[in-house]
C-alpha cells in the first residue's frame, strides 16, 4: 500500500479545506476514523467533510451526544458524526448506535474511533491529526486501510 499522504495545517481553515477535499472522494458506506489528541482538529476536519458532502445542520463537538446525524443535502449522502471518546470502548453501547444501518445511506465519521470501529467496514479512511506541543505545528496524514 502507498505511504500515507501528509499535509501541514497552519490554520483551522486549512484543516477544514482538507475535510472538504477528502469529502469529494467519499460516498455512502464509507467509514472515516479520526485519530489525534484533544484539540487536534478532529471536529474541525469533520466540519470540512460536512461542508464537502453538503449535509444539513451545523457540526459541533458532540459533547453531550455520542452521535449526531446530519441529513443529506445536495449530494444525496448523509453524515453521521460520532464521538467515541465517551464510549470508552464500550462495545454494547457502540452496537446500540447501529452504525451498520447508518452506513447504508451515510458517511460515518468517528472521532476517537481508532481501535473501536474498524470492524464495521472492510476498509476505512484513517486520518491522523498531529499537533506538536512545543511548536503548535499541526499536520495530517491519511490513508485508506483495508481490514484483513
Ligand atoms: N490548523 C488547525 N487545525 C484545526 N484546529 C485548529 C488549527 N489551528 C487552531 N485550531 C483550533 O484548535 C481547536 C481544534 O478543536 P477541535 O476541532 O474541536 O479538536 P478535536 O475535535 O480534535 O478535539 C479549535 O479551537 C480550532 O480553532
Ligand atoms: Mg472533537
Automatic annotation (TrEMBL):
Pfam family, one: TsaE
Protein name: tRNA threonylcarbamoyladenosine biosynthesis protein TsaE
Keywords: ATP-binding, Cytoplasm, Magnesium, Metal-binding, Nucleotide-binding, tRNA processing
SUPFAM superfamilies hit by this protein: P-loop containing nucleoside triphosphate hydrolases
Subcellular location: Cytoplasm
Family from the record: Belongs to the TsaE family.
Known function: Required for the formation of a threonylcarbamoyl group on adenosine at position 37 (t(6)A37) in tRNAs that read codons beginning with adenine. Is involved in the transfer of the threonylcarbamoyl moiety of threonylcarbamoyl-AMP (TC-AMP) to the N6 group of A37, together with TsaD and TsaB. TsaE seems to play an indirect role in the t(6)A biosynthesis pathway, possibly in regulating the core enzymatic function of TsaD.
